[in-house]
Amino acid sequence: MEDEVDRLVAAWRRERPDLDVGPLEVLSRVSRLARHLDRARRLVFAEHRLEPWEFDVLTSLRRAGAPYQLSPGQLLTQTLVTSGTMTNRIDRLAKKGLVERLPDPTDRRGVLVRLTPEGQDLADQALSGLLAQERALLGELTERQRADLASLLRQLTAPFDNVPG
């Protein structure tokens, strides 16, 4: 089976035989897959009237476990945005009734952001839809192939994820 990257690589090998274009065989496919995944995710989120950033915040809270709350600082760490952006996002989600701010019992000046029951339900529904889409994207791979691919991708991404801040 041939894909667009095979055609791209063949053209470069013809035009620039002096270059090793091997990295394109992997990374161009990763890039193209990322675009397809982004489209699939946006479709799922739109079905649930969510923006990707809303999904990120809601699912960060949901993954925290009961009582589904985190400090704004913890949310910053998980979503990789600035504090000003996070404040704006929390405000917008609170206005929609998906999160609420509570005083932090361990810090009189601090607050905690808690998922409301509506936010939890929406996060759960959107996650189910996302997983169905992602399973479809991986549908041609066996379980073993998925595990092998996950392991190889982990080798590539771990150095980026483990860089000291």
What's a quick, concise take on this entry?
With 165 residues, the chain is mainly α.
- Find the CATH topology of the domain at 51-155: Arc Repressor Mutant, subunit A
Mean pLDDT: 93
Q: Rounded to an integer, what's the Rg over CA atoms?
A: 20 Å
Q: What spatial order of strands do you see in the largest sheet?
A: 1-3-2
Counting helices, strands and paired strands, the structural category is mainly alpha
Instruction: List SSEs in N-to-C order.
Output: HHHEHHEEHH
Summarize the amount of helix as a percent range: 55-70%
| Shape summary | elongated
Description:
The chain is mainly α and 165 residues long. It has a domain at 51-155: Arc Repressor Mutant, subunit A. It is 67% helix and 10% strand. The protein has 7 helices and 3 strands; from the N terminus they run αααβααββαα. It has helices at residues 4-15, 22-47, 52-63, 72-79, 83-95, 117-137, 143-161; strands spanning 69-70, 99-104, 107-115. The protein has a 3-stranded antiparallel β-sheet with strand order 1-3-2. Strand 2 (99-104) and strand 3 (107-115) form a beta hairpin. Helix 3 (52-63) packs across helix 6 (117-137). The longest helix is centred in the first third of the chain and has 26 residues, at 22-47. It is elongated, with a radius of gyration of 20 Å. The N and C termini lie far apart (42 Å).
